């Protein structure tokens, strides 16, 4: 047993103060948003709410989910997250499955194309011109198509597929199965961990993306929830937030209970909640992902 | 096309029959290749418009058919009234992040490693990288709420502690802009990059520590003489990565998001950076060639930064990324 030295004591104190600080500073903003989002808006504007709602209400959420614009954005976000994730899993895994065959003709050439695309890009302007010429600007498909294949995830897939024993594929081939059947019946069921990892990556990307909405669409019907949030930040008057959707009467009643601030908080909570819900899964897989990435 | 090597020289018909045998996997791969050619390689070719007078209506053909103008747009950018402010703002923001955001995860990883209670350690670490997965749209929303002049929590606290006489309008005052960017960047990305450094620390041979304890080394000495030198390689790799993306905002790559989301007419003098100006000129004003020229400048600087930092890291420490 060794004694606790003076240095030990000081180091421990500093360490615990720092981690307590990081812990609180990281979590509190989320908690505070949650508290404010459940509080009466007019009351919240008076300040002094830190730990618990003072005048509890669900009105902020009712307002969010009864507003056509916000509700529309919610559905766009949900649908692009589901469709975009599934489509990109499908495209990226098939591409990677092809690349994972060691005897694939022109394999080196295909791989060079993939690797070069990771290190060099044309930049945003030529990319915008591309989307514009493909008629993807102002189209729902701009959320789905450009993210179908991500080079980095393709490489994660290739690495995983190559770790599956060749003998399994061989025996299926002898039984007369073609590559398509082998992929569906053998490879996919054995690769759930990598599918889960990439699905989570893609899902988070789609859910959080506001960039495509801001720069590649003008149509109000294509707005995503993340984008709406930015829109809400830039507006301070309620009428413009609630324009369209709620009727005059609703708005008049609502005026007394919520403010732009509480609406913003409620929207923010709606955007953050799904991420927090998948977080336990995320962190399990993500950490593996980043480790592979960094050691590369 | 480069010389392809398929073992011993096959005949054309042999290649064709192999190709047919592989028809499914070739089809899968080729679909992906076509995707890459379209979405990655066409824009690369498109960089050419920085030297041309490109109009959106001329389509892809316009990449080649537009009139050459040489360095016209580069010269125009240099003479732009915003040129020097943009260069200054981009450099200051990037360098501040390099100074603060880069070392933060190293320090935090070392601190976490000193936590003896494994449960606390794991909980704090898990919490610390949650913000990495949160959209900048949300972070901007949080900042607006917390920094609000009337209702913001920061002002409430400052006023109640009598630290300020009047609530401060943080986001409307240019002098706070850089600090807000750096602090929010550290808040969002520190925990995430800690993962890498902590993994490197965990990989250190425990016997070295045991031996140093026998020799009478204190905890600070162990950190300084064992932990830090042992993770030197990881630090260098991450440093090269952040230098390569210096102009984008380093590890978090958040310069654009911050300048775009937190920028407003009041702080334009400090929030106008290369990336946001490229967007304004290119997408809002439709001056694609001019904007492409600015984008190209940024890519070239980044490329030079990666190569030089890699070169120096090889010279100094004998290790680099490539």
Structural class of chain B: mainly alpha
Strand content of chain B: under 5%
State mean pLDDT of chain A (0 to 100 scale): 85
Structural class of chain A: mainly alpha
- How many strand segments of chain B? 0
Number of domains of chain B: 1
Q: Which outline of chain A best applies?
A: globular
Uncertain spans of chain B: none
Distance between the termini of chain A: 42 Å
CATH class of chain B: Mainly Alpha
- CATH-level-4 superfamily name of the domain at 68-245 in chain A: MetI-like
Q: Which series of helices and strands of chain B comes N to C?
A: HHHHHHHHHHHHHHHHH
Number of discrete helical segments of chain A: 15
Order of helices and strands of chain A: HHHHHHHHHHHHHHH
Q: Which descriptor suits the 3D outline of chain B?
A: globular
In this structure, how is the largest beta sheet of chain B organized? Answer: none
Name the average pLDDT of chain B.
Answer: 88
N-to-C CA distance of chain B: 24 Å
Would you spell out the secondary-structure blueprint of this structure?
The complex is a heterodimer of chains A (296) and B (322).
Chain A: H1 6-37, H2 41-44, H3 59-66, H4 68-99, H5 107-119, H6 124-133, H7 151-162, H8 166-174, H9 179-190, H10 192-208, H11 211-216, H12 225-234, H13 238-242, H14 248-254, H15 260-295
Helix pairs in contact in A: 1-15, 3-15, 4-7, 4-10, 4-12, 8-9, 10-15, 12-15
Chain B: H1 12-21, H2 23-46, H3 62-65, H4 72-79, H5 83-100, H6 103-113, H7 118-128, H8 136-147, H9 153-160, H10 174-202, H11 206-214, H12 219-230, H13 232-244, H14 255-262, H15 268-271, H16 274-284, H17 288-317
Description:
The complex is a heterodimer of chains A (296) and B (322). Chain A has 296 residues and is mainly α. Chain A has a domain at 68-245: MetI-like fold, CATH 1.10.3720. Chain A is 72% helix and 0% strand. Chain A contains 15 helices and no strands. Chain A has helices spanning 6-37, 41-44, 59-66, 68-99, 107-119, 124-133, 151-162, 166-174, 179-190, 192-208, 211-216, 225-234, 238-242, 248-254, 260-295. Chain A is globular. Chain B is globular. By secondary structure, chain B is mainly α. Chain B has a single domain (81-317), classed as MetI-like (MetI-like fold), CATH 1.10.3720. Chain B has helices at 12-21, 23-46, 62-65, 72-79, 83-100, 103-113, 118-128, 136-147, 153-160, 174-202, 206-214, 219-230, 232-244, 255-262, 268-271, 274-284, 288-317. The model of chain B has no long low-confidence stretch (mean pLDDT 88). At the A-B interface, α1, α4, α5, α6 and α10 of A face α1, α2, α6, α7 and α8 of B.
């Amino acid at each position: 047993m060794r004694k606790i030295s003076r240095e030990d004591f000081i180091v421990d104190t500093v360490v615990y103060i720092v981690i307590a600080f990081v812990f609180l500073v990281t979590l509190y903003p989320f908690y505070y948003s949650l508290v404010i989002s459940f509080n009466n808006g007019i009351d919240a504007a008076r300040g002094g709410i830190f730990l618990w709602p003072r005048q509890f209400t669900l009105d902020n959420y009712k307002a969010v989910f009864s507003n056509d614009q916000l509700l529309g954005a919610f559905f766009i976000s949900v649908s692009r997250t589901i469709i975009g994730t599934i489509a990109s899993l499908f495209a990226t895994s098939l591409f990677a499955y092809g690349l994972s065959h060691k005897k694939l003709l022109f394999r080196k050439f295909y791989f060079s194309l993939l690797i070069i695309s990771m290190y060099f890009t044309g930049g945003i302007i030529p990319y915008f011109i591309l989307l514009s010429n493909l008629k993807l600007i102002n189209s729902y498909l701009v959320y789905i198509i450009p993210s179908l294949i991500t080079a980095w995830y393709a490489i994660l897939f290739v690495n995983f597929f190559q770790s599956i024993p060749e003998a399994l594929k061989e025996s299926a081939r002898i039984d007369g199965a073609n590559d398509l059947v082998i992929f569906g019946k053998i490879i996919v069921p054995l690769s759930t961990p990598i599918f889960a990892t990439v699905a989570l990556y893609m899902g988070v990307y789609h859910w959080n993306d506001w960039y495509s909405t801001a720069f590649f669409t003008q149509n109000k019907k294509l707005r995503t929830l993340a984008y709406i949030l930015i829109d809400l930040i830039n507006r301070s008057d309620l009428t413009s937030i609630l324009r369209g959707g709620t009727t005059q009467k609703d708005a008049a009643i609502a005026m007394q209970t919520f403010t732009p601030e509480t609406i913003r908080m409620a929207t923010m909570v709606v955007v953050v909640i799904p991420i927090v819900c998948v977080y336990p899964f995320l962190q399990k897989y993500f950490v593996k992902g980043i480790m592979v990435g960094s050691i590369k | 096309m480069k010389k392809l090597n398929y073992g011993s020289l096959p005949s054309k018909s042999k290649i064709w029959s192999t190709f047919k045998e592989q028809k499914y996997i070739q089809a899968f791969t080729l679909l992906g290749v076509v995707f890459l050619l379209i979405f990655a390689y066409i824009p690369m070719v498109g960089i050419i418009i920085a030297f041309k007078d490109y109009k959106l209506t001329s389509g892809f053909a316009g990449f080649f058919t537009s009139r050459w103008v040489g360095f016209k747009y580069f010269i125009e950018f240099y003479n732009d009234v915003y040129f020097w402010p943009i260069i200054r703002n981009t450099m200051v923001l990037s360098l501040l992040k390099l100074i603060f955001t880069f070392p933060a995860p190293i320090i935090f990883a070392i601190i976490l490693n000193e936590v003896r209670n494994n449960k606390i350690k794991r909980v704090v670490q898990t919490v610390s990288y949650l913000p990495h997965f949160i959209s900048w749209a949300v972070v901007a929303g949080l900042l607006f709420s917390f920094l609000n002049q009337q209702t913001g929590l920061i002002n409430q606290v400052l006023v109640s502690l009598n630290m300020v006489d009047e609530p401060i309008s943080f986001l409307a005052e240019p002098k706070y802009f850089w600090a807000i960017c750096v602090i929010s960047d550290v808040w969002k990305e520190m925990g995430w990059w800690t993962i890498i450094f902590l993994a490197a620390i965990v990989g250190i041979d425990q016997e070295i520590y045991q031996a140093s304890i026998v020799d009478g080394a204190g905890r600070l000495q162990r950190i300084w003489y064992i932990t830090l030198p042992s993770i030197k390689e990881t630090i260098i790799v991450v440093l090269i990565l952040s230098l390569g993306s210096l102009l984008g905002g380093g590890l978090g790559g958040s310069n654009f998001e911050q300048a775009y989301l937190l920028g407003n007419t009041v702080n334009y003098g400090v929030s106008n950076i290369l990336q946001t100006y490229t967007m304004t000129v290119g997408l809002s004003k439709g001056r694609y060639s001019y904007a492409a020229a600015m984008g190209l400048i940024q890519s070239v600087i980044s490329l030079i930064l990666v190569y030089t930092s890699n070169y120096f890291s090889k010279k100094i420490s004998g290790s680099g990324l490539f």
